[in-house]
Amino acid sequence: MIHKISTFLVHRTRKKAKFVLPNKDINIMSINTDALPYLGNSLEDALGIIFLPTEDNGTVHAEMPVDHRTCQPYGTLHGGASLALAESLAGHASLEICSENEIAFGMQVSGNHISPVRVGGKVHASGKLVHKGSTTHIWDITLTSETGRLVASIRVVNYIVRKK
Q1: Is the pLDDT of residue 132 over 80?
Q2: 8 A C-beta contact, residue 123 and residue 144
Q3: What is the per-residue pLDDT across 19-34, written as a single tens digit (0 to 9) for each?
Q4: Does 5 map to a domain?
Q5: Is the pLDDT of residue 161 over 50?
Q6: CA-to-CA distance for 54 and 92, rounded, in angstroms?
Q7: Is 146 within 8 Å of 101 (Cβ atoms)?
Q8: What is the dihedral of CA 163, 9, 59, 157, to 10 degrees?
Q9: 28: helix, strand or coil
Q10: Active-site residue numbers?
Q11: Domain residues for 151?
């Protein structure tokens, strides 16, 4: 049985799950919902995350609404949703710069939440690769409000593993 999960196709057998990467025909400057594999029933879909095209070299962008899916009970952006946005952006970006025999997994996410965003707004995420090693990628992700106010500063470390 094959299930689509975000960027991966998972082949389920009785013994173990095997992850298979899709075709690598997009690059880090063109991450968007049209170029990505099916994201339905994924965390990105559930939170309303949209990957945006970028024109500046070396950065990636996404946005997420602040609504009933991403807010705390008192009507502001949930910190966990902010971290999920950052890890999703960094994860998809790392996959695009991995070789065809590598896969990226989130290893650490740490963030500082600076200012709130009320329900009805959006947050914009911009990510910049600060380290591309053979086994780790480190991303700095900045979340801003629609008015440009700093919402959160987040660092994501992805572990790069060779597919077996």
Answers
A1: yes
A2: yes
A3: 333 333 334 444 444 4
A4: no
A5: yes
A6: 14
A7: no
A8: -50
A9: helix
A10: 87
A11: 25-162
